[in-house]
Amino acid sequence: MPQRDAVHIxxxxxxxxxxxxxxxxxxxxxxxxxxxxxxxxxxxxxPDMSARQFAxxxxxxxxxxxxxxxxxxxxxVRVGDALETxxxxxxxxxxEALWSHEETGNAWTYARDLAVGAWCRANGIAxxxxxxxGVIRHLxxxxxxxxxxxxxxxxxxTEAPAALTPLERTARTDRLPTYxxxxxxxxxxxxxxxxxxAAGLAKLESFLFERGETYRAAMSSPVTGEHACSRMSxxxxxxxxxxxEVAQSTWARxxxxxxxxxxxxxxxxxxxxxxxxxxxxxxxxxxxxEDEPALEFRNLHRAYDSLRHPDESDAAxxxxxxxxxxxxxxxxxxxxxxxxxxxxxxxxxxMLMATASYHLWLHWRAPGEHLARQFTDYEPGIHWPQSQMQxxxxxxxxxxxxxxxxxxxxxxxxxxxxxRWVPELAGIEGPAVHEPWTHELAPTILDKTYPxxxxxxxxxxxxARQKIYGMRRSDTFRDEANAIxxxxxxxxxxxxxxxxxxxxxxxxxRRRKPPATQDQxxxxxxxxxxxxxx
Length: 534
Prior knowledge:
A five-stranded parallel β-sheet has the order 3-2-1-4-5, sandwiched between helices. 46% of the residues lie in helices and 6% in strands. It is mainly alpha-helical. Helix 1 links the parallel strand 1 (6-12) and strand 2 (32-39). The longest helix has 26 residues, at 266-291.
């Protein structure tokens, strides 16, 4: 039998690039590299995955294929189960080691990685994993976490290998499947962002030098946020551009602005300071899921287990919310915009989840799955902690019940955004479009071309507030909340227990109110100071 190639497998997952890819660079130094991308149908069948995500990922993968082919060793694509793929490759090659980045994914990928680790140990194959973001495995304490993030991001970017030695025995490679081939539902998203590294770098450049000047002020509204936000979140989620590249490019631009000086750059500098903070928060939220994977499915604070039940959700309300037909115009406009673009600014993401959780009184899991599928930039480590935070089940965060009508007036004062995405209301001019039930045209529109609001948002918010705060009055609630804060809370705020009164506090003592922005982070990573929506 001919001697088998000794290879180092580089497993590309959500890190679809060759630049600043340490596993690839380290493996290339050791010997021949077999670059591998496994398209796993079972993963894509999970309820948080969608065709729009796959389309973006596939565009990134095609550019990765080109980049590796230019270096002499094309990407090997396999469609199927990861363990079966690795076992097939083990029979063909002498596998020296497996290399990849660490991943904080959903429960399915977590279980998959555990199985791959067991397979590696059983076959005597070393699996080398590198960090590509600020998440720290087996973290014992959050103390000093931000400093460790800064240190990692300040390390030099890893150059892509100039060339890869071709394998003597070519590995079989599959075509990238279509969404139909994976059994995914048709997912029309006409204004979806383009995937791939070239598109990601172009977005980063335009944000840092053209679009980002108004970021701090403009990110709250879907009208202005579409342009002013970085739009890097899907590229970070799928790894076409690394977090280190984004951080260092931002720091370089900040240095340039400091050197330039003068009042003309003040707005730029403020915006990039805000953006830099959001990069920290991006990984801060991923760390929560890394430390406690179960929060993808169960309440972080267990006192809320009796509050809402995932199997008792009102199907009619959930269907109206997902379709953008709640009769609350700004909510519906945001949902339809998201369906068409795959992206939405932070405040509106938070409002959608809050409306589902408080006004419609739905358990966060089903709305969370729908939003995950809609987000091209779906990042499980950010999404699920945020879903719980906006639903009031963490026990440590300020309860934020957004007033969906007030948000419409604040973020879309002319009503043009609503009229564009809810054309049934196009005949109502000006800001009155946010409250069509008060307009003279209401009898000709409501329950004819557009539904009457399915809830009284004022009364629903009042009832939800009473239920949520009613759970927070016991000492046992506070004890568990303090333990959650110790494990998951930000150290930067300086509030040790997020406003929870300790046992030693005297009755009637005013609790220290946490900053309004504490732990208030986006489901992608664009964020803003939220309000209680009064």
